[in-house]
Amino acid sequence: MPNILDVESLNVEFNINGTYYPAVHDVSFHINPGETVGLVGESGCGKSVTSLALVRLLPKSARVNGEVLYEGRNLLTLADGEMRKIRGDGIGMIFQEPMTSLNPVYKIGAQISETLLLHRDISAKEAFAQSVDMLKKVGIPRPEEIMDEHPHQLSGGMRQRVMIAIAMACNPHLLIADEPTTALDVTIQAQILELMREISNEFGTSILLITHDLGVVAEMCHRVVVMYAGQIVEQGTVDDLFFNPQHPYTRGLLNAIPKIDARSKQRLQPIEGNVPSLTRMPKGCRFSPRCPHVMDQCKVQSPELFEVENIHFSRCWMNEKKEI
């Protein structure tokens, strides 16, 4: 069965004072039908930029090239009208902050119905009925009343459920979820993740889950793509990531997680330094200024992705076995 999404050599550059700087460099990955793939990394590593590039929602200051093949069609070359037909229909998106993604002056019902009216040949009455049904599916109580309310009248968890309802209204084949549980308490977070899992199982929806929370990755994902400074530094299954991490950055992320069985006075191991800015990328390996295993070669020559084992790749000179 063909992949639902194939991303090949995706590059994104931003124009800053007349000069283009790379924010995403040579990113390639795929998503199988019904699969959940995690895209992880620190804030500023390029996760959200990658997701917005996939659906062509970046500002005009961005320059994008490469291939984003959705069901065999390159989204980067489609006319704007064709792209609008795919957004919300074939590809749904849950944005990072629902309070800024939902329109504050429109009622919830109008915002869900809009998606259905745009992509389906149905009446306003049918769209209303399907919107109510969608609110029921995402676990919102008294859905008929919620349809007549505005976003500010709902809690953070309820607004996030409304965003999921809008994204899933047309039963898309692919759902892109950008930090869907940010700023939610752990109880609501668990409910949202369970809801996404149920949606994937019921409709066979593929999910690209963008997060910095490795606990969410362990619970939700089949495969993981780790990004640092706009590049993929490691890619493999969830078991590869947690039980056999190969890149020093991935190990750093895992070491920074609090452990239940740790001694009471045992300190966490942070990754020293910060993600480099677009305008000041280091030469060679982009992680070299923060890497505890840095070698002279790392400072002058950028490594390619090396295959550690079957479908497990790492961008580190210590993994130089066979290059892809």
Give structural notes:
By secondary structure, the chain is an alpha/beta fold. It has twelve helices and twelve strands. It has helices at 47-54, 80-86, 98-101, 108-119, 124-137, 143-146, 156-168, 186-203, 214-220, 238-243, 248-255, 296-300, and strands spanning 5-16, 19-31, 36-40, 62-70, 73-74, 91-94, 174-178, 206-211, 223-228, 231-237, 306-309, 312-314. The strands form two sheets. Strands 6-7-8-3-9-10-12-11 form an eight-stranded mixed beta sheet, with helices on both faces. It has a four-stranded antiparallel beta sheet with strand order 2-1-4-5, with helices on one face. A hairpin with a 2-residue loop joins strand 9 (223-228) and strand 10. The chain is globular, with a radius of gyration of 21 Å. The mean pLDDT is 91.
Which overall shape is indicated by the principal axes computed on the Cα atoms?
Answer: globular
What structural class do helix, strand and pairing data support?
A: alpha/beta
Total of helices: 12
Oligomer: single chain
Low-confidence stretches: none
- What is the N-to-C succession of helices and strands? EEEHEEHEHHHHHEHEHEEHHHEE
Strand residue percentage: 15-25%
Terminal CA distance: 23 Å
Major sheet: size, sense and barrel closure? Answer: 8 strands, mixed
**Major beta sheet, strand line-up:** 6-7-8-3-9-10-12-11
* Counted beta strands: 12
Gyration radius, to the nearest Å? 21 Å
Helix coverage percent: 25-40%
| Average pLDDT taken over every residue | 91
